[in-house]
Amino acid sequence: MNLVQSVNNAMDIALASDPSAVLFGEDVAFGGVFRCSVELRDKYGRDRVFNSPLSEQGIVAFGIGLACAGATAIAEIQFADYIFPAFDQITNEAVKFRYRTGNLFDCGKLTIRTPCGAVGHGALYHSQSPEAFFAHLPGLKVVMPRGPNQAKGLLLSCIRDDNPCVFFEPKILYRSAIEEVPTGDYEIPLSKAEIVQEGNDVTLVGWGTQVHVLLEAAKIAQEKLGVSCEVIDLRTILPWDYNTVSESVCKTGRLMISHEAPITMGFASEVAAFVQNECFLNLEAPIERVCGYDTPFPHMYEAFFIPDKWRCLEGIKKLANY
Amino acid sequence: MEAAITKDDSVITAYRAHGWTYIRGVSVLGVLAELTGKSSGCAIGKGGSMHMYCKNFYGGNGIVGAQVPLGAGIAFAIKYRGEPNVCITLYGDGAANQGQVFEAFNMAKLWNLPCIFVCENNGYGMGTSADRASACIDYYTRGDYVPGMRVDGMDVLAVREATKFAKDYVLTNGPILLETATYRYHGHSMSDPGTSYRTREEIQQKREKFDPISTFKQKIVTANLVTADEIKKIEAEVRKEVDEAAERAKTDPEIPLKELYNQIYYQPPKDYHVRGCDITIQAPSS
């Protein structure tokens, strides 16, 4: 299955196993702009899979209300770049609900799905990776899969998790990432990072599409520089698995974090700050962050903006030679 | 609409802005080269399809609905400066359901702003038809306390007259809302075939019977205001101009790489550098 199909499959299972689950968003009825919701309306009916008007704040707020009342709400925001009108609802209504009501009410049954990330031709408003904005909200879970297998399990976990979740789907992987995916019902635990490749010299941390970039850079590093890299996929950005990362850094002593989003206050900042505090004496080199530039996502020169494997390799080299 | 306003009036619209960009004064090359990201583009290639601008034309805005309060603000500035001008603020039937549109209506009416709101109703918000997205599809009434009227958007003359009326109205009475009924032939974007939510027959019928350019052409030829030959001549000239511009849009140079880091801040602090993925680059920004 490719990523589109695995997301579709996950929602199919969610709607089948939970009679209160509903899916809504812009244009989801005919299958969605990326075809993630094909056939779901035919299968589950127009009262469970329906279009919403063009109103992101409305979509999320409506979802919060649905979730508080006990239904499982899967809200789709058409592109992560459009999620900002809804940011107030997420920040001030959704994530604080359980806390401010003393556990009387919660909107845990809300999951917001949205495609994110660079795609080659997205320019300023179809390419953003806003995970860092959401990582600042205690009470929210922020998840990003690196492929179809992960996506299905993680999405099902998010939908069934009793906390509001934002599930970012890297749009460039929608069709290009194809894996063997089990057709049954399975979940992947949240807040657990995965060591995708073991190594001894350098720890590389990423999420989403960037994990594949890091794997490529790691391969070149092994072949050309003889540097063995341990590649970790965070999977859940909030609350993140600092134990796995810290253990790895204590072993290797060198850490590089990479993401597409601009470097200043990107999530790599949090990882770096935590790790330098936790593993200071084990560090052999300053922590490297290879991230996007501090500019709006450009229309031109996208290839120069995103942290590709050569830039990552440069970072690994710097760490290894320190 | 442009025929009813002057270059001192302002216009702001959403992302389907190429036509407006041209009519507001940017050359064909300026538009096409912006699409291809070349330096001859009207935003030097940094904006692309959704972000084209020129004097008194504020774009070109990607986020749906976000341009409507901006339009109200521009109208306020015009009024504040005491200019006898208006701001035409356009949005679509999809955007009509955005909360910020109503916030703009309120401010415009409250402060009597010279703003002509125009809802371009083409029947579909990408893939969702108007009646499945809006509880009320009489978009001209949705201004509530802002008076409105529906105009046949496929009739060139009707639109011009309506805009003339609207401009006169707005300069003394505050905002007005025009709903222009129109149609979209193609899909919403390159990734939308445009046929999964409507029939090909519907598109064909609209194109044959209601196309604004062909109906206008028919009108002026029948009224003997112009001959069929003169029209052919115009079409040939236009085609030539567009083809030449398209060639240049493909071959003109791109802006230099350092432009990637410029125009983020105005007068950035001394020694401000842009950091990013290439750890060897700390780019100066201006």
From TrEMBL, chain A:
Species, as recorded: Pinctada imbricata (Atlantic pearl-oyster)
Enzyme class, first EC level, given as a word: oxidoreductase
Taxonomic path: Eukaryota, Metazoa, Spiralia, Lophotrochozoa, Mollusca
Key words of the record: Mitochondrion, Oxidoreductase, Transit peptide
Its GO biological process annotations read:
branched-chain amino acid catabolic process; response to nutrient
Annotated ranges, domain Transketolase-like pyrimidine-binding: 1-176
Q: Which GO terms describe its cellular component?
A: mitochondrial matrix
> Per the annotation, which location comes first and is thus the protein's main one?
mitochondrion
- The protein here is known as 2-oxoisovalerate dehydrogenase subunit beta, mitochondrial
GO MF annotations, alphabetized: branched-chain 2-oxo acid dehydrogenase activity
Record carries keyword Mitochondrion? yes
EC number(s) on file:
1.2.4.4
**Catalyzed reaction equations:** N(6)-[(R)-lipoyl]-L-lysyl-[protein] + 3-methyl-2-oxobutanoate + H(+) = N(6)-[(R)-S(8)-2-methylpropanoyldihydrolipoyl]-L-lysyl-[protein] + CO2
Compartment annotation: Mitochondrion matrix
> How would you summarize the oligomeric state and partners of this protein?
Heterotetramer of 2 alpha/BCKDHA and 2 beta chains/BCKDHB that forms the branched-chain alpha-keto acid decarboxylase (E1) component of the BCKD complex. The branched-chain alpha-ketoacid dehydrogenase is a large complex composed of three major building blocks E1, E2 and E3. It is organized around E2, a 24-meric cubic core composed of DBT, to which are associated 6 to 12 copies of E1, and approximately 6 copies of the dehydrogenase E3, a DLD dimer.
> Which coenzymes or cofactors are required?
thiamine diphosphate
Role: Together with BCKDHA forms the heterotetrameric E1 subunit of the mitochondrial branched-chain alpha-ketoacid dehydrogenase (BCKD) complex. The BCKD complex catalyzes the multi-step oxidative decarboxylation of alpha-ketoacids derived from the branched-chain amino-acids valine, leucine and isoleucine producing CO2 and acyl-CoA which is subsequently utilized to produce energy. The E1 subunit catalyzes the first step with the decarboxylation of the alpha-ketoacid forming an enzyme-product intermediate.
Q: Where are the transmembrane segments?
A: none
Q: Which Pfam families match?
A: Transket_pyr, Transketolase_C
Automatic annotation (TrEMBL), chain B:
Specify the enzyme's EC class, one word: oxidoreductase
Q: Which keywords belong to this entry?
A: Oxidoreductase, Thiamine pyrophosphate, Transit peptide
Q: Which residues form the Dehydrogenase E1 component domain?
A: 1-255
User: Which Gene3D superfamilies does this chain map to?
Assistant: 3.40.50.970
Needed co-factor(s)? thiamine diphosphate
Source domain of life is Eukaryota
Its BP terms in the Gene Ontology are: pyruvate decarboxylation to acetyl-CoA
Q: Which EC number applies?
A: 1.2.4.1
**GO terms for MF:** pyruvate dehydrogenase (acetyl-transferring) activity
**Under which name does UniProt file this protein?**
pyruvate dehydrogenase (acetyl-transferring)
* Organism the protein comes from: Pinctada imbricata
